[in-house]
Specification:
The structure is a single chain. By secondary structure, this protein is mainly β. It folds into five domains: about 1-70 and about 80-100 and about 105-170 and about 180-205, no CATH class; about 210-220 and about 235-395, no CATH class; about 400-475, Immunoglobulins (Immunoglobulin-like), CATH 2.60.40.10; about 480-575, Immunoglobulin-like (Sandwich); about 580-670, Immunoglobulin-like. β49 and β50 (about 565) form a beta hairpin. The chain is elongated.
Length: about 675
């Protein structure tokens, strides 16, 4: 007999400690049970929240046959219920609708860190250490329960569902639809980083039990912003006829920040079914999920961030996620692939916009019965073997396209007639950037026009059934130029920098500058590194600046070892204006025949430049006229105004510009 049987509405149970009772503590029946409130309760644990009662047959709150709009918990610590150490389930909703369950600790003590799991049945344990078929989940929603809110996006609304002896939260059966599961921690403590795994999955969504036969559902449930990590099986199990469910912005196999690995023992999320109870279909995984698998597996039975198995597991869509990685690039898998599809699963869509990493493969499709699975528009990074691997005849063993030619503006090749070719920057185990798509003609020929830059290009092809191939053997557009820039530095010089990400048969670079007549000429040649996948930095400084040019224009001419040429974009550097009138040190000094004299002018002014001997007598006027803003160089051949050569000696140069005067001593040595 339950402690409380409720068949009425608007009852409140607040700040009570109830335990050591060999049945349900609260049993709600019928649609007349509504708008009841359960808050601040210590259920099956003492009032300190530290010592659970190990009572056989004890269970928590059960609603049956229509209870609705009841509230269990709340968003503040005062409203939180502590529900742990039950022989059976802490919460059990059957045919119950639109109830709210928020902010509770289900399987952990009051401090949110110490375990006291529910569902231990025949053998007491505070937390699971192995899979136990006789154990029960902490929280069950079943038999057509719909519209319930479990957790929430507001601060404090999420439940901690951890350390339960089997699954943490289980949704089951046809009609268990349109429930909202948000902001919960399934398998981690209240701090979001301490592992307290449940004994099987963190979240389990499954169709009917075997005695009820084939059915659709649970369906249309929203799973959003949850942490599902450190559980003793897959993080989430999508079983049997579960359909049209959505998963958004969850952290699976990581801490709450998505920064630290807390892997589940098997897959991140696992889709599977059978002939009797049906198969998961039409579910959407994305966008924004971070899913990590990082557990030791076998070749025969591999784990993955996302695994789809069995015939008619189909039409599921995985898009916009980080799989075996995170946005910061700090997570990776030591053991597992990102996506594994096998045993006849078909017509599943992986992409667009996933970022995929993995130990061996990015996407691994296996068995000749596993067909019509589409892989499209993803980035695949940091895998040791193949970005996409078709194993044992999977995806109709569709052959990869053959790339025949490519440069910075086009890629051509051959594939199946009318195949849809997707092109990427990247090589055999890497898809760095999606470029575009082109449909081959009736002969299988294609030419794609667009910018590829300089680097490796590869492609996949998709047939009319949706099968996607492995990656084409990459071709190289000669050098992948990652950066090129030029900047003004001291004394009017221009410094050029560039970096290559990869080089193939690279002889080197000519640094070129545009002359006043519009033609480019080469300033220098810098040798390349041949063929390399390592980045390399280059630099060159141009000290020859023409004061009459308003700007300087540069480019690179990259030369292949076979004589092929490739030009970079042009880079323009504006002429720098001096900040003051300056008569720069003459060069050389002493001089033998000719000396160069540089004058900096911040603005256009009338200027006079003259040479005097040590007696103060003018021997030559070098310039008398307007000088534009900028740097100007004069040359003097040590002759007088009458072209007579001067003898060795000391001379003074004088610059008068506007109302300012500059002088400098020079020495002539014949």
């Amino acid at each position: 007999m339950p402690a409380f049987i409720i068949r009425s509405a608007y009852n409140k149970f607040i700040n009570l400690s109830i335990g050591a009772f060999p049945s349900y503590l609260f049993r709600l029946y019928g649609s007349e049970s509504h708008h009841n409130v359960f808050q601040g309760l210590y259920l099956n644990i003492d009032v300190t929240g530290r010592y659970p009662y190990r009572m056989v047959k004890s269970e928590g709150i059960r609603m049956t046959d229509g209870p609705h709009h009841n509230l269990i918990g709340g968003r503040t610590p005062q409203e939180r219920n502590i529900m742990c150490g039950f022989y059976g389930r802490a919460i059990y909703l059957e045919r119950s609708h639109y109830n709210i369950v928020q902010g509770n600790y289900i399987g952990v003590k009051k401090n949110g860190l110490d375990p006291a799991g529910n569902g231990w049945t025949n053998e007491w344990a505070a937390f699971p250490t192995r899979h136990r078929a006789d154990a029960l989940e902490g929280f069950l929603v079943t038999d057509g329960s719909r519209g319930n809110q479990i957790g929430g996006l507001e601060p404090g609304a999420g439940n901690v569902i951890a350390a339960n002896l089997r699954t943490g939260l289980r949704l089951q059966s046809t009609g268990t639809d349109s429930n909202i599961i948000q902001g919960n921690y399934c398998g981690v403590a209240a701090d979001g980083r301490t592992p307290l795994g449940n004994g099987e999955a963190g979240l389990w969504i499954e169709g009917n039990l075997p005695d009820r036969g084939l059915g659709v559902g649970p369906a249309y449930n929203l799973v959003e912003n949850n942490v599902v990590s450190a559980n003793l099986s897959s993080g989430i199990q999508m079983r049997y006829g579960s359909q049209y469910n959505r998963f958004i912005n969850n952290r699976i196999g990581t801490d709450a920040a998505g920064a630290v690995a807390l892997p589940n023992s098997h897959n991140g999320i696992y889709f599977f079914g059978d002939l009797l109870r049906g198969y998961p279909k039409y579910n959407e995984l994305g966008p924004g999920n971070i899913i990590l698998a990082d557990s030791v597996d076998t070749v025969k039975d591999p784990w993955a961030a996302v695994r789809l198995d069995d015939p008619n597991t189909s039409y599921n869509h995985v898009f916009g996620n980080y799989l075996c990685c995170n946005p910061e690039g700090t997570l990776s898998s030591r053991y597992n692939s990102a996506v594994y599809i096998s045993k006849g699963a078909h017509h599943n869509l992986i992409g667009p916009d996933n970022v995929i990493s993995g130990k061996n493969y990015g996407v691994w499709i296996r068995h000749d019965s596993t067909v019509c699975n589409t892989i499209t528009r993803n980035r695949i990074i940091d895998v040791e073997d193949q970005a996409i691997f078709l194993d044992s005849g999977a995806n109709a063993n569709l052959p990869a396209p053959q790339l025949l030619n490519g440069n910075g503006t086009m890629v051509s090749g051959k594939t199946i007639p009318f195949g849809l070719v997707e092109l990427f920057l990247g090589s055999g185990n890497r898809l760095a950037e999606y470029l575009g798509e082109i449909r081959a003609d009736e002969n299988g020929d294609f030419i794609w026009h667009g910018s590829t830059g300089d680097g490796w290009a590869t492609a996949t092809v998709r047939d009319s059934s949706g099968n996607t191939s492995m990656l084409a053997v990459s071709i190289v557009t000669p050098v992948e130029l990652e950066a090129f820039r030029a900047e003004r530095c001291e004394y009017g010089r221009v410094r050029l920098f560039w970096r290559t990400s990869t080089e193939t048969n690279n002889l080197g670079f000519y640094v070129q500058k545009r002359l006043e007549n519009g033609e480019f000429h080469s300033l220098a040649f810098l040798p390349g590194f041949g063929t390399t996948t390592s980045p390399h930095d280059y630099a060159y400084e141009d000290a020859d600046q023409n004061a009459t040019q308003e700007s300087s224009v540069y480019r690179l001419l990259q030369m292949d070892q076979d004589g092929s040429r490739h030009y970079s974009q042009e880079w323009t550097v504006a002429r720098a204006l001096p900040s003051e009138i300056r008569l720069a040190p003459a060069y050389p000094n002493p001089f033998n025949s000719t000396v160069s004299i540089t004058i900096d002018m911040p603005a256009a002014l009338h200027a006079v430049v003259r040479a005097f001997d040590v007696q103060g007598r003018q021997v030559a006027c070098l310039y008398d006229g307007m000088l534009a803003a900028g740097s100007h160089t004069l040359k003097w051949d040590a002759r007088t105004d009458r072209a007579a050569p001067l003898a060795s000696g000391v001379f003074w140069l004088e610059l008068i510009a506007g109302d300012q005067r500059r002088v400098q001593k020079i020495m002539l040595l014949r």
